Amino acid sequence: MIPFGVEIRNSKFDVWQPKLLQRVSNSLPMTDSVADPGRPVISVVNLRVSYGEREVLHGVSFDVQRGETLVILGGSGSGKSTLLRTLVGLERPSGGEVWIKGVNIAQASDDELDAIRKKLGVSFQGGALFGSMTVGDNVALPLREHTRLEESTISIMVRIKLEQVGLASFEDFMPAQLSGGMKKRAAVARALAMDPEILFFDEPSAGLDPIIAAGIDQLILELKKAYSISMVVVTHELASAFLIADRMLLIDRGNVIAAGTKDELAASQNSRVRQFLDRVPEPQVEDELNYLQMLTGERETRH
């Protein structure tokens, strides 16, 4: 892994030349990162999301501050993945507000939503790399679709992003040739391509052995130090969460049952929080319907 903040300025790509910086600045979407620094970059107010008649998020509220890493914890079926999909605009809420960079995406037009998405980077759980494209082309895709950069400049930026995630020599590899951890890193490089103001991670260490997972955790910490951007990480991996988080949010059955710093969450005496942190199994349930009702917090109505 190349140390951040030093090597890029001295790299063989000479990326900090004024002419290149000017081309990049003119081509990437404009941002308002210096405006109102005290305002949260994300503010979720009484968020509700439903699939048909079944509500899976029940009035969720929280903020994400500038430069903060917020880890969203929860078990299977808790609603954390639905929350992430809503935050990046892939799900429309049935109620409440989701403010990102001053725009309520719950009511935003398609054009407004597209503009906000260009300020977000998303690293999906499985990487979501296009299997028919090289690693370099995967990383270059957002730049080719959403900027007016010349191909030579895009090529340099792709190499920069791959260097930053430890994949400097893998630009011409296909995704099928990468290990699981390398796919995760390539996905992070693509998420960074547009220099986002907010970075989202969906289960970044899921399916990885402990050593590779620790490498991904370290990458997240290095990115935070290098960029000072806001991050939202969805995970159920406790070791990773307590390492990378500034604050933590625990979701259970579509409700936020705990929120605070790592120490505050660790000291909680809430029974459901303790069950999750202490890895206490759920009681056995009679059938599939009761299991689904247990996950969603609904009660069966008997006549």
Report the end-to-end length measured between terminal Cα atoms. Answer: 62 Å
Taking all Cα atoms into account, the compactness measure Rg is: 20 Å
H/E element sequence: HEEEHEEHEHHHEHEHEEHHH
Widest beta sheet: strand line-up:
6-7-8-3-9-10
* Strand percentage: 15-25%
Secondary-structure class:
alpha/beta
State mean pLDDT (0 to 100 scale): 83
Secondary-structure blueprint:
Elements: H1 18-27, E1 42-51, E2 54-64, E3 69-74, H2 80-87, E4 95-100, E5 103-104, H3 110-117, E6 120-123, H4 135-146, H5 151-164, H6 180-192, E7 198-202, H7 210-227, E8 230-235, H8 238-244, E9 247-252, E10 255-260, H9 262-266, H10 271-277, H11 288-296
Parallel strand pairs: 3-8, 3-9, 6-7, 7-8
Antiparallel strand pairs: 1-2, 1-4, 4-5, 9-10
